[in-house]
Amino acid sequence: MVISVKAFGQDVHDVMDKVSETFLKAGGIEAT
N or C: which end of the chain has fewer CB within 10 A? Predict the structure, then answer.
């Protein structure tokens, strides 16, 4: 269970990175 949760958390982290990257590139906005 712990491994599954950890893997899921990593997936979420990767997705958030990609979303942030795409958003910054598309909007030209820098998060502070």
Answer: C
pLDDT of residue 28: 63
Task: Give the model confidence (pLDDT) of 1-32 as tens digits.
Answer: 576 778 788 888 898 899 888 887 877 665 54
CA 23-24-27 angle, 5° bins: 75
Start-to-end CA distance of the chain, whole Å, equals: 35
Q: Measure the CA–CA gap between 27 and 10, rounded to whole angstroms.
A: 25
